[in-house]
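2024-03-11 09:14:02 INFO receiving multi-entity request
2024-03-11 09:14:02 INFO entity count = two
2024-03-11 09:14:03 INFO echoing inputs for audit
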Amino acid sequence: MKDARPDSLPSHEVSVIVPTLNGARFIAETIASIVAQTAAPGEIIVVDDGSIDETASVARSAAPCVKVIRTQGLGPAGARNAGIGIAIGRFLAFLDHDDLWVPEKLAVQTALLDSDPEIDICLGMIRSFQDGPHAAERKWLGEPVPGYLTITMLARRTAFERIGLLDQLRPFSDSAEWLLRAEDAGLRVKMLDQELTYHRVHDRNHSRLNGARSRAEFLDLARRRMSHAPQAGARTPQPCT
Amino acid sequence: MMEQPPSLAQGYRLNEPAVITDQIDGEWVIMNLANGAYYGLDAVASCLWQSLLSGETPLVAGRVIAAHFEVPEERVAADIATFLAQLLDEGLLIAGSALPELVARGENRVPAAPYATPCITRYADMTRLLALDPPLPA
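2024-03-11 09:21:47 INFO inference complete, emitting structure
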């Protein structure tokens, strides 16, 4: 992405990865929220994981700088990994095709990672919303909550190099599993007490359409955590006495 | 903490939809989606958990356990009362009849090991991670 700002700005070293599947309905607004960042990213990569709608053309039309790559049935985590594979940025950020960032999201997070080399991963608060009949009639659903999710994350590329990619076999719990793996490996994770991402709740949400599978995946993740020796500081088992 | 010991003569059921549980690779896992805590059970606790989910009262489940391990019913009943109080304190069970779809869930294997006080272990390392996912059942 070219603009008048000097290339030395840390935000220009951010690659934004947008996994999508049949996201034509929302992806233009999602890309607009990336383009509208007060600190522009270096590249926007849309990973179209087999859409049968106009997702790719809508994404390209949303901003000329968007790169669209095509994968087939990798799932959300696999699509993110495919994006990581071609991203050139020193920092990696992710946004799903139906979610939005506040305009300052990348500016706040790149400033933090740029100023504190000890921090590997920066996260932020997230708030859910639902569309009304008109854009101006959006309804907020609850208060902002800590977003331990890829869509709030700005991570150093080195974090992925150290602990590996997202688990492609976990389409629902990939964020949780990766962040636990990062913490177990001693990476430093900073949760900002600032609302940075908006999560759209709608009739086609991936995890809501597959709620039972999503819950089973989290149960499986819990069992795997239990079956390993506790990591120092990573868990607080409290057996009965 | 509960002021009165829980009744062993009545049935209990999973505190749905917030609490989910399943037997994975022979091991019971319980998760409270409301706070992200998850729990593991030892052998005797697993046997009791399965029995309670399938609609048995703690009293009946305790008698089966006591007979199997040849330990006094009074000892098992006291252990079950403590175990049950923990399950209720953690919000994993509530009073009521088992839901039909849970009755046949899992494989109930009476442990071969010597009797030991049933034990539940609580893990809190995922409590921060469950803000949005997984969604509660509709």
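2024-03-11 09:21:48 INFO post-check: The two ends of chain B are 30 Å apart (CA to CA).
2024-03-11 09:21:48 INFO post-check: The mean pLDDT of chain B is 86.
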